[in-house]
User: What shape does this take?
Amino acid sequence: MSDIKEIKSIRIVPYTLMNSSISAVVAFIYAIFIVLILGIAGNFLPSSLGITGGVIASLGVALLILLPAAGFVFSVTQSFLTALIYNVFVPRIGGIKLELRDMKEIVGVPVVPFALMLSAIGATIVFIAMLIIGPLIMIGLQAAVIGAAYQGTVIPGLSSIGALGIVGLLILIIGVPIVMFVASFIMTALTAIIYNLLAPKIGGIEFEFEALKEKLYGINSIPAVKLALITAIVMAIVNLIFEAISTVSSIAMGSSAVAGVISLLINVVVNLVVSFIIYAIMAVLYNYLAPKIGSVKVELE
Assistant: This one.
């Protein structure tokens, strides 16, 4: 038996701590792969370049430290804002709804609430970022225009962009979030539609919920294979749709049809495999970390 549950709120601290911890570990795994690739590539580089084993080792150590730290800090900021904005928006636009079978398996996701909330969160985060980055971008463009004029250099289009001033700033602060909202809504709605078509056939994402108190549930564990399988297939199909549009456009402009189709198929297969591995790793990490740092907690109604 299935029932529709709405996520009324997300506990900010557990959500932020879990996401940032997983991001740090995944970034550390990425760093290990990069270091291995650098080590292998270093054996084939000519000595005339001056890239010694010591240089590669130093770079590897730096990556092993910096990537996890950067991943953790970035994820803390993003996760905190995501949970906070979600909780603020729920009373205004409604929360994400899940169709749960036996209070365990997500067999469906109502499209509009899902797409509306995620696109609103994404647009709000971009708006906040542009409030900080936008003025810096405009100052940089103005400085580039002044510097180019001082040196007598003419860069096509730069002067007109730099002259936008307050209009350019408004485009960055208002226009970019609006574009982000529209693009994100289309993407997330398409994702939900495909998920709803596939979940009854191949099985949906499952959560092992624990009732903590009235309406508050902790997610104790997430079956890794089920999460990775449905998520990877959905993402691969979404990627296939947009890549197919891009490929058709390239062929229409004169690109090789054979090369375009081959590139499309390779891209989709790689996306499928990589997505499966990443989401499986994330689920395994969640299941390992949940008993140690606390599970993600949500209020369902």
Remarks:
- The longest helix spans residues 53-93.
- DSSP finds seven helices and six strands in the chain.
